[in-house]
């Protein structure tokens, strides 16, 4: 169904983190193509580049963050602060948009993390749709956190880490999605407010697809009595992503052009994960000892308190000369689509996971925190699209897994499974496919308000 252009406006409010901005901008772009006018309210922190989206109206609100609070090292602290600081400016901005009688604002679409927005939407009698940008399986695991605590799985005990969580197969205790923070009680509070805010919303969208998470979608449908829409993978509707906050180094593609087909392992741990120097050294020597060509993203801030490249272990660059290439930030979607790529060693962020599946690239998973732990376990144990590093970052296990994935029959079988899922994705986005139908139902739904 096509919305009549100019008659319905949607207001979207992304969380200012790369892995959340990308899917929200994709959703906005699709809804604009479907005929909606789009307003994006955003914080000053990590502001999207307005010039890339001339069709959207952007409204910047003060987020009250001081420069030393820009860090993503303590996400719970950042999210708590943003949810408090933005209440007043968000309300004022939304009030001013709603007072413009030219267009009917059909609904507010916010990231699930913006829990305070449900009260604001209610006060204006505006339907709020929650967009959860990560997987359904991880959302279910977050939802079960109070239960995990009650059952004594949390705080995690070293002796229990490898034990299975009976009530939540296939999770092991170590996979329960906690996030390191100086304020553990604030994490519980955020999760609980996020769940309450979602249950009170008018609908819930996931960037996933039915064929991958059918069981989990059924479970979430039983827990949350609101309409649920699985419309992903959203980035597939567009050529390579343009909502990057960092400059993507295109020299990575020039280097890949010179490599043999399916020979290169691409290594990237997303936009937030951090490691210490010992872990960096394990990654480096794991890559060197695997003897496999690699493209490695070492993002500014990846290694705590250091200039990353200066901290690479002595002798590493000499050992991998001609076989490896390092960039600060890559055009990831183009990289994954390149014929030279044979595997993706990822932190299992949800966007990276979807982007990998969409290009038929098998994965090695080393999750760092939160939803990544659950995504990784499902990739390894349920969907069988990759191999998980079970010992953290350990050079011997890294070397072994790279070999298994890139050179052995087991890797070929995993690649075949991912390739077949890639075809499934293509059909679910076509007319009549599951995600396409879900998107159409979603549009009908918001037009019914
Ligand atoms: C965060 C959490 O880590 C993740 O678990 C959650 O699902 C979303 O929020 P992030 O660490 O940024 O996300 O990972 P991910 O979800 O994979 O998103 C990273 C995005 O940055 C991807 O769209 C990827 O294409 C892009 N990227 C990454 C680049 O453009 N270049 C790079 O070099 C690396």
From TrEMBL:
Stored Pfam families: UDPGT (PF00201)
Key words, A-Z: Transferase
Top-level division of the source organism's lineage: Eukaryota
GO annotation (BP), single: (-)-secologanin biosynthetic process
Coiled coil regions, renumbered to chain: none
Record-level Gene Ontology MF annotations: quercetin 3-O-glucosyltransferase activity; quercetin 7-O-glucosyltransferase activity
Presence of the UniProt keyword Transferase in the record: yes
InterPro entries, alphabetized: UDP_glucos_trans
Family statement drawn from the similarity comment of this UniProt entry: Belongs to the UDP-glycosyltransferase family.
Record's protein name: UDP-glycosyltransferase 76B1-like
Source organism: Coffea arabica (Arabian coffee)
Organism taxonomic ancestry: Eukaryota, Viridiplantae, Streptophyta, Embryophyta, Tracheophyta
Recorded name of the encoding gene: LOC113708255
């Amino acid at each position: 169904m096509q919305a009549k252009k100019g008659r319905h406006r949607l207001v979207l409010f992304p969380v200012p983190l790369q892995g959340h901005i990308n899917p929200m901008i994709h959703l906005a772009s699709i809804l604009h193509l479907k005929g909606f006018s789009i307003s994006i309210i955003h914080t000053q922190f990590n502001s999207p580049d307005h010039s890339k989206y001339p069709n959207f109206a952007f409204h910047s609100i003060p987020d009250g963050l001081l420069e030393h609070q820009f860090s993503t090292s303590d996400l719970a602290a950042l999210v708590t602060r943003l949810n408090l600081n933005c209440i007043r400016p968000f309300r004022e901005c939304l009030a001013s948009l709603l007072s413009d009688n030219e267009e009917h604002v059909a609904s507010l679409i916010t990231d699930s993390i913006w829990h305070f927005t449900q009260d604001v939407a209610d006060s204006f009698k505006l339907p709020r749709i929650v967009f959860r940008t990560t997987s359904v399986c991880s959302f279910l695991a977050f939802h079960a956190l109070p239960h995990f605590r009650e059952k004594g799985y949390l705080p995690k005990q070293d002796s229990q880490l490898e034990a299975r969580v009976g009530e939540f197969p296939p999770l092991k205790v170590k996979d329960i999605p906690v996030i390191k923070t100086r304020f553990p009680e604030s994490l519980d509070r955020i999760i609980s407010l996020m769940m309450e805010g979602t249950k009170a919303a008018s609908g819930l969208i996931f960037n996933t697809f039915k064929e991958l998470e059918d069981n989990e979608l059924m479970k979430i449908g039983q827990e949350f009595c609101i309409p649920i829409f699985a419309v992903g993978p959203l980035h597939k509707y567009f050529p390579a992503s343009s909502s990057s906050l960092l400059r993507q180094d295109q020299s990575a593609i020039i280097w890949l052009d010179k490599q043999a087909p399916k020979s290169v392992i691409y290594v990237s741990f997303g936009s937030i994960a951090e490691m210490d120097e010992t872990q960096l050294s394990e990654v480096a020597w794991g890559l060197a000892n695997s003897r496999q060509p690699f493209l490695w993203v070492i993002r500014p801030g990846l290694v705590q308190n250091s200039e990353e490249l200066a901290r690479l272990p002595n002798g590493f660059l000499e050992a991998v000369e001609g076989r490896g290439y390092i960039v600060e930030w890559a055009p990831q979607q183009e990289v994954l689509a390149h014929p030279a790529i044979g595997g993706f060693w990822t932190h299992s962020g949800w966007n990276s996971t979807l982007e990998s599946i969409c290009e038929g690239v098998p994965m090695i998973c080393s999750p760092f925190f939160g939803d990544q732990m659950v995504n990784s376990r499902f990739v390894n144990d349920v969907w069988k699209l990759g191999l998980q590093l079970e010992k953290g970052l350990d050079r011997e296990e890294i070397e072994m897994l790279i070999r298994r994935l890139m050179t052995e029959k087991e890797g070929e079988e995993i690649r075949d499974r991912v390739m077949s899922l890639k075809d499934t994705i293509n059909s679910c986005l076509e007319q009549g496919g599951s995600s396409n139908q879900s998107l159409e139902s979603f549009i009908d739904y918001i037009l019914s308000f």
